[in-house]
Amino acid sequence: MNRTQKMIYISLLSAQAVILGLIERSIPFPFAFAPGAKLGVANLIIIVAIYTLPFKDSMKVVWMRLLMTTLLGGTISTFMYSTAGALLSYAGMLLVKFIGGKRVSIIGVSATGGILHNLGQLLVASTIAQTWTVLLYLPVLSFMGILSGIAIGIAANFLMDHVTTIQRFKKAHEEKKSDRRKQKMAETLA
User: What predicted TM-score, i.e. pTM, was given to this entire model?
Assistant: First the structure.
């Protein structure tokens, strides 16, 4: 994969995440017992980015999605909530993927992201409200985060198995990681 192909791939992932985020924003809240809960469909694209791109490039997808979604109809407060949720979710998914390795599936990584996204947003809300009682809503949102994370993880798993472009980028990403490991081992032995 050359530099131009990678840039186009990053741009396409970012555009897809923005479109999914805007579509989801236009749909009324689907969960009456958990006001504010959403499926987090744009997270599907972030998971694909995590599994097919290096850290720096997948982080670009996250930031481009946040900025473009805010510019296309958000406010400063939605940007603050989205940024806190997205960055905490992203960091948690990377950590679980790295530590869990082959033992944790895409579904587990996605469920982690769903929980941490809600936690990030509640932390911002509690900071703005200047009270920690907002965090009492965390169990309800965590339950919804797990359910939506499982659904998004299943969809991401399907995409990773059936979309050839994603498979090609995942293979290139894994080969590059393998080459870096071999190079580090050669350097330590030398």
Answer: 0.86
Q: Whose CA is closest to 152, among 44, 65, 62?
A: 44
Cα within 13 Å of Cα(63), Cβ side: 6
Q: Give the type of residue at 67.
A: L
pLDDT tens digits along 100-133: 888 999 999 999 999 999 999 999 999 999 988 8
**Lookup: tokens for 29:** 């809240």
Q: Specify the DSSP element, H or E, that contains 29.
A: none
Token pair, residue 156, equals 């991401």
Q: Report the greatest alpha carbon distance in the chain.
A: 62
Alpha-carbon distance of 50 to 19, in angstroms, equals 19
